[in-house]
Amino acid sequence: MGVWTRFTVTGADRPCGQAVRHHHYTGGVRALFISNPQATTTTSRSRDVIVRALASDVSLEVVQTEYRNHAKELAGEAVEKGYDLVISLGGDGTVNEVVNGILSAPADLPRPAYAALPGGSANVFIRSLGLPTDPIEATGAVLEALRSGSRREVGLGQIDDPEDGRYFTFCAGFGWDADVVHEVERQRRRGLRASPVLYVGIAFQMFVRGRALRDPSLTVETPGRRPVSDLSFALVTNTSPWTYAGSVALRPTPRSRLELGLDAFAMTQVNPVLAGKILRKMLSPKGVDPRGRGYLTWHDKQKFTIRSQRPRAFQIDGEYLGHREQVNFRSIPKALRIVG
């Protein structure tokens, strides 16, 4: 578990990288600020500006993550320690860890509200909340929501598995997109930065090669409908867009909303011409139509099961979770209280 060093902030004398206990605010809101120092689009200077701004309105404690799943541990501790609010600064991976930390704590404990500030390259969940992509501007929006008392409840997706009950905030994918995530993680271990250029480049290479896209081994099952087989790529979404190519949104399930159940998209035919047409629809402001040639969509469902005839790559919120042959999904309405 994380070890937190506490001391009072006095102007600019805060040692870099240590936890902070701010005593100047008496409004009663206790907040834990979890910062990922490896976040790709923030600097230590911007983090200091954000911390000072937040500490003017809440009793703030600050801690930095040091390893994978550290944010989950820290968020779980925040629940156990009775914090009113958890704030994170990082990318989609940090958001996923914090959400799972809050929701995996003992069920009899009150859940703190959550405010997510953008620090990654994509920030899909944060953008879907309507927050600015600039972390300083997003901090301003969160502070306005805190002062006005604005809160909202959003639904999440969950892997419904006794051995793995992970929540996801915006998407889970079987096949091509998970292959891309897996390769990006391999490249990161070799020292490359996880930038939008890297994601787009790898996705394009795999699209051109087409091996994963031409593997019709997937089946999607939903209650009350016949299973649909011979699918080459499938994803389940909790909101729209599914992801971003740089600043451009990709919308395979444009009707997907945080306030509804889960949506899904699956490809039934794959050839370069047809796949190119579907991709152009995804890149359009309107997104993919509910029905069309070469794909199927499902809208506002409470449960999904995706099976594969052989182990296929699987990801949630941009994190590769290994190769699997079956994943069960369910929608968890009003799972999380959001500030901002």
UniProtKB/TrEMBL annotation:
Family matches, as SMART domains: DAGKc
MF terms (GO), sorted A to Z: ATP-dependent diacylglycerol kinase activity
GO CC terms, sorted: plasma membrane
Transferase found in the keyword field: yes
Keywords: Kinase, Transferase
Pfam families hit by this protein: DAGK_cat
DAGKc domain span: 26-163
Names of the cofactor(s): Mg(2+)
Source taxon at top rank: Bacteria
Gene3D superfamilies, alphabetized: 2.60.200.40, Probable inorganic polyphosphate/atp-NAD kinase, domain 1
Xref: InterPro entries: ATP-NAD_kinase_N (IPR017438), Diacylglycerol_kinase_cat_dom (IPR001206), Lipid_Phosphate_FormReg (IPR050187), NAD/diacylglycerol_kinase_sf (IPR016064)
Family: Belongs to the diacylglycerol/lipid kinase family.
Protein name, per record: Diacylglycerol kinase
Source species: Nocardiopsis ansamitocini
